[in-house]
Amino acid sequence: MLEHKINPESMLTALRNGGFYDDTSLILLLGEDRHHLTLSDLEKALVRDGSVSEPTIVETKRSISGHKGLPFTGVSALPKIPLKIAESTGIIALEMDRPSVAVVEDSPEAYASVVSYVGEDCDIYVCSLSQFAALVRTCYGREEHRDKKALGDVYEVLDEAVRRGASDIHLSVGYPPSLRVNGKLAQMAAQPLDVAWMRSEVARLGGVETLAKLDRNFNADMALPYGAARFRLNFGADRRGPTVSARKIPTRIPSSEEIGLPPAARTLVNLDRGLVLVTGPTGSGKSTTLAALLNDIAKQHAKHIITLEDPVEFHIHSGRSVVNQRELGSSFNSFPDGLRQALRQDPDVILLGEMRDMETIKTALTAAETGHLVFGTLHTMDASSTVARIVSAFPADEQGQVRSVLGYVLKATISQTLLPLVSGNGRVAAFEIMLSTAAVANNLRKPDSNSQIRQILETSSQQGMQTLDMALVTLVQKRLVSRADALEKVTDAEDFEKRLHM
Question: How far is residue 93's CA from residue 95's CA, in Å, rounded to a whole number?
């Protein structure tokens, strides 16, 4: 019944024949392990390398052995075979209409286990290591998870996230779902997720097209309306299988006052042209700040606003304006292309969801230079690193010209971070504000002006400017955030302590 066709040698031959690897690339992939290679070693290396997907591994085993490939959804296991034997032989009994087993490798030991515990007259499915591990976890359980419930579907996780006011959800194979509440990540009281569950729930959320895209590109994005809530989803992959990261997006856009945006930054909605950058690490509230500013523009001014996003997050109300919100992949193919298209459509205000590369940055600078108001985001921590990031994106011989353009078009940077409130009920933003003045513009044109720009921010509070450390001091003095939490975010701890005790 089992002829031991699936082994390292047969898998290597199939991979070569399939054009996935040649002899040299296999040597580089496996290193010294190739001299004493096991099927487990090979499969782990393939998953680590990422050049061969898990469905391809199962299909390769199927073609070698002639047995069926184990589906990735709708399969459960039965504890007919003792756990130690199942783990040592890579075989597990399946819950099907007739006796069935899944095998990682058709070894003699696996054959003996089939005969002893299931019987010779059974259906055989070949599976990947990850599928097998997931079946073992859900069938036999692990001691630390036996008292925890198995999730029915992903909606249980979304429901829990909404009830607890979580900002983020993280789903990964081999771990219980995790929720980020008030900035802290904690696991739900549930059993670890397996590959089959993850694949079925990716398909449930995004459809089979999204699952296929994930298998092909290892990445997919979408926005998900969920009752009164809304989530931004990213589907990815790690060595165990699919991953899902979800961020809860407020359905109501808060006002700039509600998010604590300083008064000087609120006046930016009155600009007619130039570049305004909102920066900060992932999860720092940049999208919320931009939505609040654009919503204010739409309410207060008659403008044509075009947004280029990946995906569309907040739905901006038109108010007095015309608002066109466009999504990568459905309304435009790349940010540079989308920006060039937007410039031909009579915009007054353009939002770039992210300034990711030199081409996008160059087009954004040109748009700001030619009379448009451009809002953009960067994953930088403060004004100085923002300027350095933009300039460094260009070749050395163009950087002087880029600094000159920035001195002319950059009207403001808003750099922000989120901290948990002392009350434990939510988070609050700390903002660094740099506004365009003659002194700022002059220093933007100079190389190595980081310290001068910081000094200008520190001494220009009357004009509405402040460093992030100054904002953190204010939040601690108002007893909104703890000193310990603020110290985790400061750029100059000594200066922070000095200001705190002034």
Answer: 7
